[in-house]
Amino acid sequence: MASGTIRYWAAAKAAAGTAEEPYDAGTLADALRHARALHAKRPEFARVLLRCSFLVDGAAVGARAHETVDLSEGGTVEVLPPFAGGAR
């Protein structure tokens, strides 16, 4: 079990109603399960998470199963929804 910070960006921030919050979890899956329960009264939050990408301590999670992504003490999880725009 580790403690750290989850940071929400753009649509994830709006759906959570906060920019960041603490986590106490061993894996990314545990942290996200807790976040979903914490924001259960905000149904858009769970829907947004389905479309998000995640960085754990600056490293992209990519296609790895969230149960296999260990969280570190004092670490950071960045929750990044798809962003519009970009180079044309």
Could you please describe the fold and organization of this structure?
The chain has 88 residues and is an alpha+beta fold. Helices cover 31% and strands 27% of the residues. The chain has three helices and five strands; from the N terminus they run βαβααβββ. It has helices at residues 10-16, 28-38, 43-51; strands at 2-8, 20-25, 53-56, 59-60, 76-80. The chain has a five-stranded mixed sheet. A hairpin with a 2-residue loop joins β3 (53-56) and β4. α1 packs antiparallel against α3 (43-51). The longest helix has 11 residues, at 28-38. The chain is globular. It starts with a strand and ends in an 8-residue tail after the last strand. 24% of the residues are buried. The model has no long low-confidence stretch (mean pLDDT 94).
Backbone structural class: alpha+beta
Query: What string gives the helices and strands in order?
Result: EHEHHEEE
In angstroms, what is the radius of gyration? 12 Å
Average predicted confidence as pLDDT = 94
Strand content: 25-35%
Largest sheet: 5 strands, mixed
* Number of helical stretches of at least 4 residues: 3
Q: Spatial order of the strands in the main sheet?
A: 2-1-5-3-4
Keyword list:
five-stranded mixed beta sheet, 88 residues, 3 helices, alpha+beta
Can you summarize this structure?
This protein is α+β, with helices and mostly antiparallel strands and 88 residues long. The protein has helices at 10-16, 28-38, 43-51; strands spanning 2-8, 20-25, 53-56, 59-60, 76-80.
